[in-house]
């Protein structure tokens, strides 16, 4: 618990986006007793780090959606922020409601295809049903193709082959090396070895040229994926897409103009303040910081932003965010994993221990002040 701060009545921190960054900021503000409003389009936090396990294991999805209202009560507001008004210091929701801020934390993150990401404005119950529905499709399928061999794609292929070793699983990736470019070559090679050992077929250095014409996430017989280089056609009855994350910039791109990088991320200074604004911070995937986009980093950013808000209220010097050597753990199914910690190779045993999906998820439930459902 942080120590409670006595603040002026005019202080209200607004956090736009309740992902890993936004909820970490909310938890810290709550523990310091600083008034805040967390705004998100959904009614529940989605623990998307465990979304791939929820795609293969029946009933797991219920553990990956945590109600905001139960954690933050009246400090949560459901709605989509469509505009930030710098003159009046308000965020404007789609419903036209305006929420005044003394300090603003922008944590709108990124969007990508289901099942890795789930950024739809539907109820928690419907979201859970969609994941449980996908598990049923996976169970019906014989030949599953995963498109995209970044960190999400390799984890997806490994989860599938771990729980359903009898199914044909093919991973198609546009590059020859798998997982994130920021990982050491030996880590990327181990990822490849694990997938081959599990029996995943790898098609590397090829793009799927007809993905737009194919049905995703639903079993359909005799689907054919065409490649951009080889004439070979890959057959599938279920296709899962793990490519193409995009930064959610729509609510701020107009107002910050020059301070938005070409990928849509907000340029920030060392204190994580949006350049030119000392009461506006950007954290997580939507902050333009040269490091892998990760939940782990989003929570580190949140700590810096909240500390700096407290320091600015108490007239202390601001703290600085420094990117460290890469730490990234990949779960390759329930029983395997690989990664690096502070730049050092971490083998199977340690990663499996450190990154059991259940441990990760239950830690988040605790941080949000709730008990994980059985
Ligand atoms: C399949 C997968 C597995 C991953 N595994 C790991 C892992 O093991 N470890 C790790 O560290 N990272 C992992 N990552 C990366 C991690 O998920 C992201 O880096 C992290 O989610 C970023 O957190 P964030 O808070 O910046 O944004 P997000 O988690 O994307 O959250 C943004 C939130 O903002 C809301 N929002 C967006 N726009 C608006 C708006 N206009 N108004 C209101 N609300 C809005 C969204 O609804 C969402 O809730 C994984 C990513 C994927 C896709």
Describe the overall structure.
- InterPro entries: FAD/NAD-bd_sf (IPR036188), FAD/NAD-binding_dom (IPR023753).
- With 374 residues, the protein is α/β, with parallel strands linked by helices.
- The chain contains 10 helices and 23 strands.
- A 5-stranded parallel beta sheet has the order 5-2-1-9-19. The chain has a 4-stranded parallel beta sheet with strand order 13-12-11-16, covered by helices on one side.
- Strand 1, helix 1 and strand 2 (36-40) form a beta-alpha-beta unit.
- Flavin-adenine dinucleotide binds next to helix 1, strand 2, helix 2 and helix 8.
Write down the overall geometry: globular
Low-confidence stretches: none
Please outline the major beta sheet. Answer: 5 strands, parallel
User: What fraction strand?
Assistant: 15-25%
User: Could you tell me the number of beta strands?
Assistant: 23
N-C termini distance: 26 Å
Q: How large, in whole angstroms, is the Cα Rg? A: 21 Å
Please state how the strands of the largest beta sheet are arranged side by side: 5-2-1-9-19
The computed structural class is: alpha/beta
Q: Taking all residues together, what is the mean pLDDT?
A: 94
Helix content: 25-40%
Small-molecule binders here are: flavin-adenine dinucleotide
What is the overall number of helices? 10
